[in-house]
């Protein structure tokens, strides 16, 4: 079931997302599912500001990130490990041992997927933050991914690699071809989910997620089967609803 919030601008989108985050962080031992990409950056800035100005502590939070590229090291400037530390974790008091991000630097991806899924089974994610790809992906679950999938290795589509080339000197050849991602079934186990999307580039994917059939053609459409999803959009992303 979707609760849809349409905000005037990105700051308001981030503020709405932060309100939900703050409620979650007040709980005992909150478990957060986190995304990378541009969509949650405003939310992460507000979390850091809240920590530094109001002293809100994130020390008891445990986090699980959705995904990581395969074939680049953690210390690569475009790894999701680096992204999360630069855009969130370095600004909070969350202990490093509470942070979980798949390791994609290339020893045994299949074993890493199994390990990550097993680690997650010890927890229930209280709040999962999602962005959405123009092709309807969530995490890196590209079209065609089974709706009940668990953490797995995914070959990225050309649409996704083109979209992400902006972070790799605008050169699609530098964008990794594979990623490790939580599966759609893994994401669906979260208690509460927020989806953040802005710009008309996302309008078709948002339409497919909310109004389209539940289908592997639009992986985000699986969220129609989840009891508690808040979708936070600007007008452009909501323009086809
Ligand atoms: C990131 C992730 C992806 C992004 C999606 C949107 O961890 O899992 O699904 O959320 O590609 O990316 P942005 O926000 O950059 O448009």
Topology:
Elements: E1 2-7, H1 10-25, E2 31-34, H2 41-54, E3 62-65, E4 67-69, H3 80-87, E5 99-100, H4 109-121, E6 127-130, E7 152-155, H5 158-164, E8 178-181, H6 184-188, E9 192-197, H7 203-210, E10 229-234
Parallel strand pairs: 1-10, 2-3, 2-6, 3-5, 6-9, 9-10
Antiparallel strand pairs: 4-8, 7-8
The structure holds fructose -6-phosphate.
The site of fructose -6-phosphate has 14 residues, from loops.
- Enumerate how many helices there are, as a single number: 7
Assign the CATH architecture: 3-Layer(aba) Sandwich
> What is the residue-averaged pLDDT?
96
Q: What number of structural domains do the residues give?
A: 1
Radius of gyration using CA atoms only: 17 Å
| CATH topology heading | Rossmann fold
The CATH C-level name is: Alpha Beta
Shape: globular
N-to-C span: 15 Å
What proportion of the residues is helical, as a percent range? 25-40%
What can you see in these coordinates?
By secondary structure, the protein is an alpha/beta fold. The chain has a single domain (about 1-235), classed as Rossmann fold, CATH 3.40.50. Helices cover about 30% and strands about 20% of the residues. The chain has seven helices and ten strands. It has helices spanning about 10-25, 40-55, 80-85, 110-120, 160-165, 185-190, 205-210, and strands at about 1-5, 30-35, 60-65, 65-70, 100, 125-130, 150-155, 180, 190-195, 230-235. It has a seven-stranded parallel sheet, with helices on one face. Helix 1 (about 10-25) crosses helix 2. It is globular, with a radius of gyration of 17 Å. The mean pLDDT is about 95. Fructose -6-phosphate binds near residues 38, 39, 137 and 138.
């Amino acid at each position: 079931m979707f609760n849809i919030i349409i905000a005037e601008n990105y700051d308001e989108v981030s503020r709405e997302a932060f309100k939900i985050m703050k409620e979650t962080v007040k709980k005992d031992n909150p478990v957060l599912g986190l995304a990378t990409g541009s969509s949650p950056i405003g939310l992460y800035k507000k979390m850091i500001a809240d920590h530094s100005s109001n002293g809100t502590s994130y020390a008891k939070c445990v986090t699980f990130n959705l995904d990581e590229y395969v074939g680049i090291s953690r210390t690569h400037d475009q790894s999701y490990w680096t992204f999360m530390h630069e855009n969130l974790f370095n600004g909070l008091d969350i202990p490093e041992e509470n942070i979980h991000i798949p390791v994609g630097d290339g020893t045994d991806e299949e074993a890493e997927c199994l390990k990550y899924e097993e680690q997650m089974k010890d927890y229930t994610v209280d709040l999962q933050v999602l962005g959405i790809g123009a092709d309807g992906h969530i995490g890196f679950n590209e079209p065609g991914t089974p709706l009940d999938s668990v953490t797995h290795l995914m070959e990225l589509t050309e649409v996704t690699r083109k979209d992400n080339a902006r972070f790799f000197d605008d050169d699609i050849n530098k964008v990794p071809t594979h990623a490790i991602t939580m599966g759609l079934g893994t994401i669906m186990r979260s208690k509460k989910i927020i989806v953040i999307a802005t710009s008309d580039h996302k309008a078709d994917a948002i339409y497919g997620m909310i109004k389209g059939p539940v289908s592997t053609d639009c992986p985000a459409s699986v969220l129609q089967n989840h009891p508690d999803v808040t979708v936070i959009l600007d007008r452009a992303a909501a323009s086809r609803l």
